[in-house]
Write a structure and sequence with these properties.
The chain is of the alpha+beta class and 175 residues long. Strand 4 and strand 5 form a beta hairpin.
């Protein structure tokens, strides 16, 4: 229920849980899962503006759009919070895997822009290129190192981005 409310209202999962807390509950205390989901959403927001194709951000063919796009950057990263899996090590540091869908922006030569399926954001970006936006049909599995501070309740885990695994993969362990 909270995930649906968060998506509909455009708010964080933790905030939606807070709004849905039982009547009469004076204080809401987030669970470790709430904090982890909040950390994942924040980590995905930090990916915005990162250039695809750089170290750790190799998206391969990016869903093989039907057009050539240059200087592709991440416009939006939407995590599937139901897909979160850890490596099961159980320590304070473990690998965290999340399936994420992306929207991208990039540049297409003006001569080609009318033949591509991307949304034209700005036709006259410069003398030669138009700025376009597109969403891939596939999701990717992203891997973060997740550091949980033991004995510190209500402290959001620290996530350090590691890499993109293409495409979304079946992991040999479950969360």
């Amino acid at each position: 229920m909270a995930k649906r409310v968060a998506k509909l209202k455009g708010i964080s999962y933790a905030r939606a849980l807070h709004l849905l807390r039982p009547a009469g509950a004076d204080e809401w205390e987030p669970t470790q899962d709430d904090l982890l989901n909040e950390a994942i959403q924040a980590a995905c927001e930090e990916l915005t503006g990162r250039r695809a194709g750089t170290q750790g951000f190799d998206f391969g063919e990016i869903g093989k759009p039907d057009f050539w796009v240059e200087d592709v950057t991440i416009d939006l990263a939407e995590p599937d919070l139901d897909s979160v899996v850890t490596d099961g090590s159980g320590g304070s540091d473990e690998w965290l895997y999340v399936s994420v869908r992306f929207s991208f922006v990039g540049y297409v030569p003006k001569s080609d822009v009318h033949n591509c399926s991307a949304k034209v954001v700005e036709f006259d970006w410069n003398d030669h290129y138009s700025r376009v936006a597109f969403t891939s049909d596939q999701a990717w599995t992203l891997r973060w190192n997740c550091h949980i501070i033991p004995l510190e309740p209500y402290v959001q885990p620290e996530l350090t981005f590691d890499c993109v695994l293409e495409p979304a993969i079946e992991l040999p362990f479950s969360g």
